[in-house]
Predict the structure.
Amino acid sequence: MSNGQFAALTLLVLAAHLLALGAVFTGAHRNGPMLLLNAAVALAVLVYVAAHPKAFAYGIDWQVVGLAVFEAFALGAAILAWRGMGAALIASRGVFALHLAASAAAVAFALLFRITRLI
């Protein structure tokens, strides 16, 4: 993946988060886009972790385990919030805020730093 592709991907993810946030604030779709995006991001991360077991080849990588547990929680909260559970909706809003902050940080990283070797 080139630096340009990485920057484009991070900008796309940030734009998706901002559009979902706009949909929530305009009230047109209420929480649906936010919950759908939370579930999509969580599934993408979980699939990526499951598809790359090298992280566990030389012992347990606790950062990857923590990320997988967080994203499993995010997916569960999105599903439960979709079904009408109030506490899960609050948790999903918190997860969305963290995902939004992470995507904004990824955009800043992609635009401000050039990586000479992307794997």
Observations:
- The chain is about 75% helix and 0% strand.
- The longest helix spans residues 86-112.
- The two ends are 7 Å apart (CA to CA).
- The chain has one domain: 3-112.
